[in-house]
Amino acid sequence: MEFSSKLLESAVYEVSQLPGIGKRTALRLVLHLLRQPESQTTNLASSLLTLKTEVKFCKSCHNISDVELCEICANPKRQEKLVCVVEDIRDVMAIENTGQYRGIYHVLGGKISPMDGIGPLDLNIATLVEKVKEGKVDEIIFALSSTMEGDTTNFYIFKQLEPYKVVTSTIARGIAVGDELEYADEVTLGRSILHRIPFENSLKSD
Amino acid sequence: MEFSSKLLESAVYEVSQLPGIGKRTALRLVLHLLRQPESQTTNLASSLLTLKTEVKFCKSCHNISDVELCEICANPKRQEKLVCVVEDIRDVMAIENTGQYRGIYHVLGGKISPMDGIGPLDLNIATLVEKVKEGKVDEIIFALSSTMEGDTTNFYIFKQLEPYKVVTSTIARGIAVGDELEYADEVTLGRSILHRIPFENSLKSD
């Protein structure tokens, strides 16, 4: 793409550095901002800068938070000995939305992925092991997505926790509620038969 | 969506104001920026702000330009009496990419669209009429997309130019090169038959 303006070119370049946004989309977004009142651009720029420079993470679970101890960790009604290990804040939000979980979280900040140069030391694993070591945890629930990176991360943490007395579990994999059996992939269907549960348990909705 | 951080919420909100970007995508983009070095966020913010505050438009064709008279208008090799009317810079870039056009442009900055509150006075139409009035234009080529808004805009400008001696033309509509006839829509196919050209003309590639 050849631009008639260096300013435009540099703005489009920076926007196209975002994941999933190509040069064409970036140009569309930038032209949109040019047509809007200046306040929209200043608000966008300042909110991103403020977040980047002032973002804090909960000292206990590492979730993004404006205060030292996040709302979930600080809530006395949550079971603090039940810890759900997730990748990032999106998973926390998804699980919170179900309204089914009363424990706390531990946000790793990613998954082990040698391809992307992310090793165990780049993730918040040491603080989790420390918590377990100090006897603060009864059960750990692994809730990472079941990809190769997710499974590797689960297994790495599982190995680190072996010396300590802690129950480890993983969220159930199976056919999604409302899905047709014939369209399910074989691995999921296979697991859902292998890990079947007593019928009377399925009658409880909570 | 409930956020654990007001800073995060406000950044996601601002990003989701961009066209075609919902809350989920906005969250994904913001989390990506959080994982990247701070320079990426500062570069993004400053390039957008600089563009918004310092953007200039060519005084002749209204295209985005860093200088008073854009490269195309300032080029003595371009036919300055042949003017192609387009909606925005993306159309200029698309036509320039073909390498087939040697005239200059006139960028309207949009199309007449009462639904979006855009009337003729919001577009760069007066300066075009002025140019024609002063006898600076031999031919005007309308190259707006053929939607209702595009057709309305073409017709409005055409009416404004009626008192003056100027040739007006519109880009050819027809079956795209390489497309199969059977998949073409009826309007396009109909027009391509109505506006057929002498076969020997189709043999010239330039």
Give a short synopsis of this structure.
Chain A is of the alpha/beta class. In chain A, 43% of the residues lie in helices and 12% in strands.
Structural summary, described in words:
Chains A, B: InterPro entries: DNA_Rcmb_RecR, Rcmb_RecR, Rcmb_RecR_Znf, TOPRIM_dom, TOPRIM_RecR. Chains A, B: Residues 81-176 form the Toprim domain. Chains A, B: Belongs to the RecR family. 2 copies of one chain form a homodimer. In chain A, helix 1 crosses helix 2 (23-35). Chain A folds into 2 domains: 6-54, Helicase, Ruva Protein, domain 3 (Orthogonal Bundle), CATH 1.10.8.420; 72-171, Dna Topoisomerase Vi A Subunit, Chain: A, domain 2, CATH 3.40.1360.10. Helices cover 43% and strands 12% of the residues of chain A. Chain A has 206 residues and is α/β, with parallel strands linked by helices. In chain A, strands 4-3-5-6 form a 4-stranded parallel sheet. Chain A has a two-stranded antiparallel ribbon with strand order 1-2. At the A-B interface, helix 1, helix 2, helix 3, strand 2 and helix 5 of A face helix 1, helix 2, helix 3, strand 2 and helix 5 of B.
